[in-house]
Each structure stands twice: as structure tokens, then as C-alpha cells.
């Protein structure tokens, strides 16, 4: 927060927050063209691109949601427990495998009969949320709490989280193997029809379709979305928003912010810091776990995915200023968009009968965006955003807020 | 003690109470003793554990009587002798551990202020190296050829990891730049070395030097963001650079081998130095010797750097940048130079990684390797080069020995039988009871035996967690720099002498220093307890 004294002007005299808006737009708009030009330089023969804005936006939101789930865990760990928790990638795996347990249990045995229970996904989501949270708390009690009590440095905590991550991943791989797994996502909710004059929207969830039927009697437009697809994005983004609000409104949220701001002061004002740490750990595990459940329902899932989704999530939190929730929110969308935009271009640019050289680079795009943005913005974008929108938005780490949290009825 | 005095009443209850009290004090003292010596005892337990792992003949024959298990096959006498060797070595080394503990305590008395006798440290390192070699020899092997390969490979891996950890120690332990891009620099070195020799026909050794230059130059370039960025941001940027490099190997045609149709992933047929002079199966021995020589070279460079005026400036930059800047040092130049030097040193183990398997694949540029090197760095004790060898040997020996267990017969090793039966109980009995047998066996993927190549990762993780919890300054902590003057040695001797009357024979000028030292020593002892 000492940057406030330096003034709000950026490189060319404009206020810094304008760059926060301009640079993402520039990245999102210019990156496809940059890739296009690069690709044309190397490969003139074929460059036909199927640019479907709807699917790109949907994919962007999808990636954004998956990154956000882990990024919130990492941010909370950074803010309250004061260290980057590498075990979050494994909590993600634990969530996915809890869903696998549930789907293979005798109550939801989906393989033996082709008519799985309709509530599988919901039970898996709730179990993943709670179960992973509890495992995170257990790991904290066993490993991190003794270290905290000895006033260990963040580096020590980080390395021991590396150890936890290696151990957990090895255990999970011993149990479930290196192969891929998936849970069935057949859902029966029946259908619903919404009649608006002009357009008739028919949610036929039994056939997993959302059909837009125009009143003129044309053939329905099939969006091709399953129940899972409809649920995934709003659930994670909604949970994140609910979490922001809880941080803002509730007693425990205030206490949490107070601990994040100053642990000793919070303890002296009567907050039980250890309880808050455990609660924070529960939420760290829960967000990673529910992301894992969604991931195993959406994609095929193997133990290597934990680390490969954790690294972009790290990119997200660095891009959005470590410790800033609103920054993580914006940065996850930014990285999701840039990845989704680059995907069709990269796959269009490679030669038809060649190995897929260029489309492998879609996984690299988050890191490229991270490095480009960090060159201009060494602090990440979340810091400037918080400074600008403190008064308006639900930014959680305002100084005066923390003071209010101290003075409030805790 | 007060309770003992108060027991003037001769009632039976009081006597019993006193008895319990005394037994309690004895137990508490024993526990204290165990705790104080735990550092060395844990090492010995670790050794016995490895001894057990490599197969134990004596325990087995006793247990055979009680377990009428058809899986337990009676062993041949030769096998029994071979298997009992590690147990014997384990016992010998636990004795060594106790002796080291004894010597170490006496040594520490003469070297206050956290200083350790350098001979003691060297002894520990040499001991760990000898242990790793002996374990390799004692390992039950199928043929002499596989035994030779295992030994040479182990030595090579220890050297590679120790070199990586030393270069990391220069950047992180000495200078405080949190570098998580170990595998990035190593990968750049490996790729450059192999491309120079496969595509341009440059001799392998010069290829390695080119790799060092490229890797060092990239390190120098990284100094530009590192000066601007906060340390944790820099850590995550370097971590993601390693992943970018791995993806580039998958995607980039330049980094792949050209076939008649298209490309195949990874650079293959990398020529090692003097490869034509040796038969293929003995070449790894030559590589291991080369690795030992280059380890000595890297160790020499790192030691020179740490004890030079340059190293002193770097250490003060680690402690406080602003103070150093106020003395007129250019921090950017120093940070850039150490990133370049460290990057160049990372290229040496990279070249060995390329030569070992004669190829570089995306699999050899895993982010997990960075974590292993960090584990070695932390276990060994940051800021100390000898510690790097110790940490690397612990990590590598654990990994290789547990991996080598895959070769031996599962039913002949007690500890494997125990692990497997526990695992089977958890998976089949508990899991099947809760979730139903048929569905449960679907995701159990067949056999109920523990995959040992994964157990090694679990054990490495466990070791890291235990070390962070118990001794976070590592096996061999950094030695604080203290000038060797007569005054200090004199004062330290007097401070350690239990007889307080001796202090009267010293100059009055030294009294402050002595009391300071005494206080320090007392604090240290309290801290241990």
C-alpha cells in the first residue's frame, strides 16, 4: 500500500487504472492478429480460421472459471496463511477423486446400470466441497500448524507444502493409477419451457439441449450445452461472488480480513486466529475440490492435471496481484479469454497433414500473457484496480475496512 | 525434588507416589535425551529403514513361523546372506551416527556462535556418499552388469543433483533470489548441448560450453524483470518458464528429431564426450567419473565465490538490499552476474542429463525435478555447499533405492509384503465394505500392489515435510563468517569451561566479550532443548 504515496500516474502520465482496462483489451484484441501474422510468416499455405465468437466466449468463461477456482484457493492461502500453497493442485485432484468415489459407490453405481441417479453431480459437488475442505484442514493440522506455531518463514511453509504436494500426489497415483478417469454426467431434470413473445426457449434437459425456437417456426437453434455446461460457469463464479460478499458482510469474513491485514492486532482484539486459519484452510480446500469435481465431470482426469492447472492458476494470481481477490477475478477472465482466442487460430495455422505443432502452444498462452503484462505492470493489475475501485466495489482489503473490522462487534 | 523431601510420612501411598514420580522423571529425561540426539538417530533410522527395504533375511525367517502364507517363498541361503548385508550395515551406521553425535557435541562446544567444525561437516558428507555407494553394492541384483549400471547411475544422479543444488545455492542460498526455474536453466543447457552436437556437429564438450554461455546469457536477461518484480512474482515467472520450455519441446520443430515423415518428439542420438572410445555398457561409468570431476569443479567455483569479497556482498544483499545500496554497490550488476553464473553452472548438469540417456525429451524437463532440487537444497542446509551434496545424496538414494525395489521379488522382502498387505486391506476390505466390491474393483485397476516408482516420490515428500518440521536449517547449516583471531578462540575456550574461576585469569577488556559468548552459548543450549 506504500505505492499510494507515489501517485496514481503510470508510464505516459495517464492514470494507472486506465492501463488496467486498456492492456487487457489490447492483449485480447491484438494477440490473435499477432499470432496470425506470425503464423502467416512461417506458413503461407493454409490459414482458414473457424472463428466462432459464441464458442470462444463460452470456452473463455470455462477456462476462466477453472482457473478462478484454484486462484481463489491460492489467493486466500497467500493472504491469510501467508504462503503460496503448492498442495492446492493436489486438493484439486482430491476433489476429482472424491467425485469418482461417489460415482462408483453402491448408491450411484453408474457402470452397472445405464440409468444413473440424477443427483450424482450434486452429491459429488457437495461431497467434493466438504471432503476436500476437511482434508485440507487435516493437512494443516498435521503439517502447517506446528510450523506456524514455531513462527516459520513463508519459504519454509512453501517448501513443506511442496513436500505435501509430492506425497499426496504419489498416494493418489498409487491408488488410482496414471490412467484417465471420468464421471458420467447424465442428468434427468426434465424440461422447461419459457414463453416470451417472439422467442420460445425450450430447456430440454432430458436431451441435454437448450433449444431456441423462434416463433416463426424455424428449426430450433441447438446450443449444444449439457446441464454440466450450464452449471459449471455460474457455480464457480457465483461461489466466488458469494465468498466476496461473505467476506464483506459476515462476522467471520471481517475477522478473516482482519487476520489477513495484521495477525497480532487481530489476536489482541479478541479474534481466535487459529480458528480463522482453520476456516481459511477449509475454504482453500473446498474451492480447489469443487473445481476438481467439475473438471472430472467435464474432461478426462489424470493425476498430472493437478500441476498443469496449478501453474496457470499461479499465473492468474500473479497477474492479478498476489493476494487481491478482485485481481484474481479479472485476471482469470483475461487469461481465459486469451487462451480461448488463441486456440482456433493456432489450430488453423498448422499444416493439415502435419503433427499438431502449433496447437500445443495454447497451453503456453497464459504464461506468455503473464510475462507480457508483467513487463508493463510489475505489480499485476489487481493492485491498480483495487486502488481505483476501492470506494465502489467489494474490494476486501481496504485499510479503513480492516480498521472497521477491528472496531466492529467481533 | 520437592516432593521427595516432603515424603517424611511413611505411608505406602506416598512411597508409591514417589516411585511413580521418579519413574516419570527418568522417562522424561530419556525422552529429552532422545530428542536431543534425534538428528543423528533419524539418520540411523533412515539407514536401517533402507536396509530393511533392500530385503531382510533374518527378520523374515523368524516371521515365517508365525505366518503361514503361501506367498512367502523360502529363500535360498545365498539370497539370505545377500539380504542380511544391508541390515548389518544399517546397524554399523547407526553406531556411526551415535559416535558422530558424541563427537559433534564435543566439537560444538569449541565452536560457539553456531559455528561447526568444517572437518565434521566434511566427514558427514563423505559418510553419506559412502553409504549411498555401499547401499548400491548391497542391493540384491540379478547380474553384475545391472549392478554396475545401478551403481554408476546412482553416482551420476547424485552428482547431477548436487550440481543443480549448488547452482541453486549460489542464487537462492547466497544471494536471496528465489529461483524456481531450475529445470528451465537445466533444460536450456541440455537442449543447447544436444542441438549443438546433433545438428551442427560440434564436439560434445564444446557443446556443453556453448550451452553454458546460452544459459548464462538467459540468466543475465532474467535479471531485468527480477530487479523490478517482487521475489515471489519472480519465483512464479521462472516456474512457468520451465513449463513453457517443456511445451516448446512438444511443439517446436527445431527442437525435434527429423524423420522421413514429419518429426518425432525429443532430440535423440545425442553424442556424449569420447563416446567412441568406450563400449556402450561401460560408457555410463566414464560419465559418472566425468560427473564427479565436474562436481569437484563446481564445488571449487562455488566455494571460491562464497568466501570471496564478492560472496560477502551477495550475502549482505540477501540480508538487506537497501544497506548495500547505500554503500554504493550496484545491486543490479551483482544480481545479474549471479543469475548469469548460476545459469551457466546449471547447464553442466543439463549436459549430463542429455548425455546420460543420449536424448532430451519433454519428460526430462519436468517441473517436479525443480521441486526435488529444492528439497535437496533445503534438506542439505541452505547457504552451505557441503550440505548440497548431503541433501542430493539423501534425495537420490531414496529415489533410486525405492525404484530398484521393483526389480527384486516382492515376496522376498518383508517390508514390501507388509506394505502390500496393508494396501490390500485398505483397498479391498475397507473400500469394498463401504462402496461395494464390484464397483470398487473397477477403479482399483487390477492388482493390489503398491507401485514402487510412485512410493519413491511419496517418501521424498515425507522426508521434506519431516525436515521442515524438525530441522529447518538442514543437515549442515550455514556457518556464520567469523574472523579467526586469538581473542575469539581464547574467549570461546573460557566461555565453555565449566569452572567459573578460570575467567579471572583473562584481561578485563575481554570480559564483555566472554559474557556475551557465555550468554550466546546458554541461549543455544536452551534453544536445543
Work out the helicity level of chain B: over 70%
| Average pLDDT taken over every residue of chain A | 75
Could you report the average pLDDT of chain B, rounded to the nearest whole number? 73
Overall strand count of chain B: 2
Indicate the low-confidence ranges of chain A by residue numbers: 1-11, 187-191, 391-410
Helix and strand element order of chain A: HHHHHEEEEHHHHHHHHH
Strand count, sense and barrel status of the largest sheet of chain B are: 2 strands, antiparallel
What class do helices, strands and sheet pairing of chain B give?
mainly alpha
What topology, given as strand order, has the largest sheet of chain A? 1-2-3-4
The major β-sheet of chain A equals: 4 strands, antiparallel
Order of H and E elements of chain B = HHHHHHHHHHEEHHHHHHHHHHH
What does the radius of gyration of chain B come to?
Answer: 28 Å
Question: Uncertain regions of chain B: pLDDT < 50 for 5+ in a row?
Answer: 1-8, 54-82, 498-514
Radius of gyration of chain A, in angstroms, nearest whole number: 23 Å
Largest interface comes to: A-B, 59 and 56 residues
Number of helices of chain A: 14
Explain what this protein looks like in three dimensions:
The complex is a heterodimer of chains A (410) and B (529). With 410 residues, chain A is mostly helical. Chain A has helices at 16-42, 53-81, 88-104, 120-149, 154-176, 227-249, 251-261, 263-268, 273-298, 305-319, 325-349, 365-376, 381-389, 399-407, and strands at 191-196, 199-204, 209-214, 221-222. Helices cover 64% and strands 5% of the residues of chain A. Chain B is mainly alpha-helical. Chain B has helices at 2-6, 12-36, 38-53, 57-64, 77-110, 118-138, 144-174, 182-198, 204-228, 231-251, 283-307, 309-319, 321-326, 331-356, 367-380, 385-404, 414-435, 437-443, 452-470, 486-496, 511-528; strands at 257-258, 263-264. The two termini of chain B are 20 Å apart. The chains are: A mainly alpha (410), B mainly alpha (529). Chains A and B meet through helix 3, helix 4, helix 5, helix 10 and helix 12 of A and helix 10, helix 15, helix 17, helix 18 and helix 19 of B.
Amino acid at each position: 500500500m506504500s505505492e499510494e504515496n507515489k501517485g496514481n500516474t503510470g508510464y505516459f502520465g495517464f492514470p494507472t487504472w486506465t492501463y488496467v482496462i486498456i492492456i487487457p483489451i489490447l492483449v485480447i484484441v491484438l494477440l490473435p492478429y499477432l499470432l496470425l501474422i506470425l503464423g502467416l510468416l512461417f506458413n503461407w499455405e493454409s490459414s482458414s480460421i473457424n472463428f466462432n465468437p459464441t464458442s470462444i466466449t463460452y470456452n473463455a468463461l470455462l477456462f476462466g472459471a477453472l482457473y478462478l477456482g484454484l486462484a481463489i484457493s491460492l489467493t486466500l492461502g497467500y493472504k491469510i496463511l501467508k504462503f503460496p500453497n503448492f498442495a492446492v493442485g493436489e486438493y484439486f485432484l482430491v476433489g476429482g477423486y472424491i467425485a469418482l468415489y461417489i460415482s462408483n459407490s453402491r448408491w450411484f453405481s453408474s457402470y452397472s446400470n445405464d440409468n444413473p441417479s440424477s443427483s450424482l453431480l450434486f452429491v459429488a459437488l457437495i461431497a467434493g466441497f466438504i471432503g476436500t475442505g476437511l482434508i485440507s484442514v487435516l493437512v494443516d493440522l498435521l503439517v502447517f500448524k506446528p510450523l506456524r506455531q514455531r513462527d516459520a518463514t513463508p519459504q519454509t511453509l512453501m517448501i513443506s507444502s511442496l513436500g505435501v504436494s509430492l506425497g499426496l500426489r504419489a498416494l493418489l497415483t498409487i491408488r488410482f493409477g496414471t490412467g484417465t478417469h471420468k464421471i458420467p454426467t447424465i442428468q434427468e431434470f426434465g424440461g422447461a419451457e419459457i414463453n416470451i413473445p417472439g422467442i420460445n426457449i425450450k430447456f430440454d434437459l432430458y436431451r441435454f439441449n437448450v433449444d431456441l425456437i423462434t416463433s416463426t417456426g424455424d428449426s430450433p437453434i441447438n446450443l449444444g450445452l449439457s446441464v454440466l455446461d450450464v452449471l459449471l460457469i455460474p457455480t464457480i463464479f457465483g461461489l466466488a461472488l458469494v465468498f466476496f460478499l461473505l467476506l464483506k458482510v459476515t462476522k467471520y469474513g471481517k475477522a478473516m480480513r482482519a487476520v489477513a491485514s495484521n495477525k497480532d492486532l487481530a489476536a489482541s482484539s479478541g479474534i481466535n486466529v487459529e480458528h480463522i486459519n482453520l476456516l481459511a484452510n477449509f475454504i482453500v480446500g473446498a474451492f480447489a475440490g469443487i473445481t476438481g469435481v467439475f473438471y472430472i465431470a467435464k474432461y478426462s482426469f489424470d493425476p498430472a492435471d493437478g500441476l498443469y492447472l496449478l501453474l496457470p492458476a499461479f499465473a492468474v494470481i500473479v497477474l492479478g496481484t498476489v493476494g487481491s481477490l478482485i485481481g484474481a477475478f479479472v485476471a482469470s477472465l483475461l487469461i481465459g479469454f486469451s487462451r480461448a482466442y488463441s486456440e482456433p487460430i493456432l489450430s488453423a495455422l498448422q499444416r493439415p497433414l502435419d503433427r499438431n505443432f502449433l496447437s500445443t502452444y495454447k497451453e503456453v498462452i497464459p504464461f506468455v500473457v503473464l510475462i507480457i503484462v508483467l513487463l508493463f505492470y510489475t505489480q499485476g493489475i489487481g493492485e491498480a484496480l483495487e486502488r481505483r475501485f476501492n470506494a465502489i466495489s467489494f474490494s476486501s482489503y481496504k485499510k479503513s475496512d480492516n480498521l472497521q473490522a477491528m472496531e466492529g462487534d467481533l | 525434588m520437592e516432593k521427595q523431601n516432603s515424603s517424611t510420612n511413611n505411608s505406602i501411598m506416598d512411597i508409591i507416589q514417589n516411585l511413580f514420580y521418579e519413574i516419570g522423571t527418568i522417562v522424561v529425561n530419556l525422552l529429552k535425551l532422545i530428542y536431543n540426539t534425534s538428528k543423528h538417530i533419524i539418520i540411523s533410522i533412515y539407514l536401517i529403514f533402507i536396509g530393511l527395504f533392500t530385503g531382510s533375511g533374518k527378520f523374515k525367517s523368524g516371521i515365517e513361523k508365525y505366518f503361514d502364507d503361501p506367498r512367502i517363498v523360502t529363500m535360498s541361503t545365498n539370497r539370505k546372506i545377500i539380504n542380511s548385508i544391508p541390515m548389518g550395515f544399517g546397524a554399523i551406521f547407526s553406531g556411526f551416527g551415535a559416535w558422530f553425535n558424541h563427537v559433534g557435541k564435543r566439537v560444538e562446544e569449541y565452536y560457539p556462535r553456531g559455528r561447526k567444525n568444517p572437518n565434521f561437516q566434511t566427514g558427514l558428507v563423505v559418510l553419506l556418499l559412502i553409504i549411498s555407494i555401499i547401499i548400491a553394492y548391497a542391493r540384491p541384483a540379478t547380474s553384475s552388469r545391472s549392478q554396475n549400471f545401478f551403481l554408476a547411475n546412482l553416482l551420476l544422479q547424485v552428482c547431477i543433483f548436487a550440481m543443480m543444488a549448488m547452482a541453486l545455492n549460489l542464487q537462492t542460498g547466497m544471494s536471496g533470489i528465489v529461483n524456481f526455474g531450475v529445470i528451465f536453466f537445466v533444460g536450456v543447457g541440455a537442449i543447447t548441448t544436444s542441438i549443438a552436437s546433433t545438428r551442427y556437429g560440434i564436439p560434445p564438450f564444446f557443446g556443453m560450453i556453448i550451452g553454458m554461455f546460452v544459459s548464462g546469457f538467459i540468466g543475465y536477461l532474467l535479471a531485468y524483470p527480477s530487479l523490478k518484480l517482487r521475489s515471489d512474482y519472480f519465483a512464479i515467472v521462472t516456474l512457468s518458464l520451465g513449463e513453457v520450455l517443456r511445451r516448446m519441446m512438444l511443439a517446436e520443430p527445431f527442437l525435434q528429431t527429423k524423420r522421413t515423415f514429419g518429426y518425432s518428439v525429443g532430440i535423440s542420438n545425442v553424442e556424449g564426450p569420447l563416446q567412441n572410445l568406450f563400449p556402450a555398457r561401460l560408457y555410463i561409468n566414464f560419465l559418472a567419473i566425468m560427473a564427479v570431476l565436474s562436481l569437484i569443479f563446481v564445488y571449487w567455483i562455488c566455494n571460491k565465490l562464497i568466501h570471496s569479497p564478492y560472496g560477502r556482498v551477495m550475502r549482505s544483499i540477501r540480508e538487506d538490499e537497501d544497506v548495500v545500496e547505500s554503500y554504493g554497490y550496484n545491486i543490479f550488476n551483482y544480481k545479474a552476474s549471479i543469475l548469469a553464473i548460476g545459469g551457466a553452472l546449471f547447464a553442466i548438469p543439463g549436459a549430463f542429463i542429455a548425455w546420460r540417456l543420449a536424448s532430451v525429451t519433454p519428460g526430462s524437463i519436468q517441473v517436479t525435478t525443480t521441486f526435488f532440487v529444492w528439497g535437496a537444497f533445503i534438506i542439505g542446509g541452505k547457504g552451505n555447499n557441503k550440505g548440497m551434496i548431503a541433501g542430493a545424496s539423501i534425495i537420490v538414494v531414496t529415489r533410486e533405492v525405492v525404484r530398484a525395489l521393483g526389480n527384486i521379488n516382492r515376496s522376498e522382502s518383508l517390508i514390501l509384503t507388509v506394505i502390500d498387505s496393508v494396501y490390500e486391506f485398505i483397498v479391498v476390505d475397507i473400500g469394498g465394505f463401504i462402496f461395494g466390491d464390484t464397483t470398487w474393483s473397477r477403479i482399483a485397476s487390477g492388482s493390489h500392489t503398491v507401485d514402487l516408482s510412485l512410493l519413491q516420490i511419496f517418501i521424498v515428500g515425507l522426508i521434506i515435510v519431516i525436515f521442515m518440521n524438525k530441522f529447518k536449517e538442514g543437515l549442515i547449516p550455514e556457518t556464520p563468517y567469523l574472523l579467526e583471531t586469538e581473542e575469539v578462540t581464547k574467549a570461546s575456550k573460557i566461555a565453555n569451561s565449566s569452572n567459573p574461576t578460570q575467567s579471572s585469569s583473562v584481561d578485563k577488556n575481554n570480559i564483555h566479550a566472554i559474557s556475551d559468548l557465555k550468554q550466546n552459548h546458554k541461549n543455544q543450549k536452551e534453544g536445543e532443548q
